[in-house]
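The following record pairs a protein chain with its ligand, nicotinamide-adenine-dinucleotide.
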Amino acid sequence: MSELPGIVVTGASGRMGQMLIKTVQESGKARLVGAVDRPGSDWIGREIGGVTVTDDPLEAFAKAQAVIDFTTPDATVKFAALAAQARCTHVIGTTGLEEAHLQKIAAAARHAVIVRAGNMSLGVNLLLGLTRKVAEALDADWDIEIVEAHHRHKVDAPSGTALMLGEAAAAGRGVALKDVRDSGRDGITGARTRGDIGFSAIRGGDVVGEHDVIFAGEGERIVIRHLATDRTIFARGALKAAIWGQTAKPGEYDMLDVLGL
Ligand code: NAD
């Protein structure tokens, strides 16, 4: 058992934190060696998964080989420096990071392995790689459309994942997404512009997240689809990244690196 990588989960009380603790424990591929939450949280001192939740990250990281972190941008930047100090792999799922945060994370990645992805699902990351490859192989006679569906509470559109897919398609075509993005069609829009990448959003019910990338040609169509039905996909992806990080050199990576895409 002792050769399995020891994992610390930060944000232990959060939706993702709780799921990560369960996923690590049930995986048989890693050991949970610590759980961290913010100072003042009523989870501090609580027993979970055989460990006691602490607000002292450095003490927890010193016992670990990897930290899985789905918290807030400010906390994540602090954890990046501490994980580098402890030479732990740092898996970052936190979103909303700005340039100043990213610079500090890049500095920490000089000393330790950091894997960061706005979507840790293995399937979505595979979809990103496939989208880029298909866009590279086909010319602009094939219209690219990205259709996504989410639950009725979602406040933004297109989804962050749809935009990542758009970036991947644009990169495959060798263009910048901002120059070809077409979202929010309504009314007399005129005919489709050759080379544009179109976005459509469906909102309703409890849909966790669905993404189609459509390559529409003359007389044929390719559709690559990802359907998310459960948030555990993000936790499983993060654990895979933490294990992958044990054999990587210091640096900043994403899930495409983890999947070898
Ligand atoms: P949440 O609000 O349920 O949990 C956040 C947790 O962070 C809480 O437990 C909070 O106490 C903790 N926290 C805040 N500051 C802290 C600090 N200084 N030290 C220690 N812990 C601290 O949120 P959530 O739904 O679990 O999401 C967390 C993050 O993960 C968000 O940025 C979300 O967008 C992102 N997310 C990413 C993916 C992905 O695949 N990359 C998937 C789902 C969610």
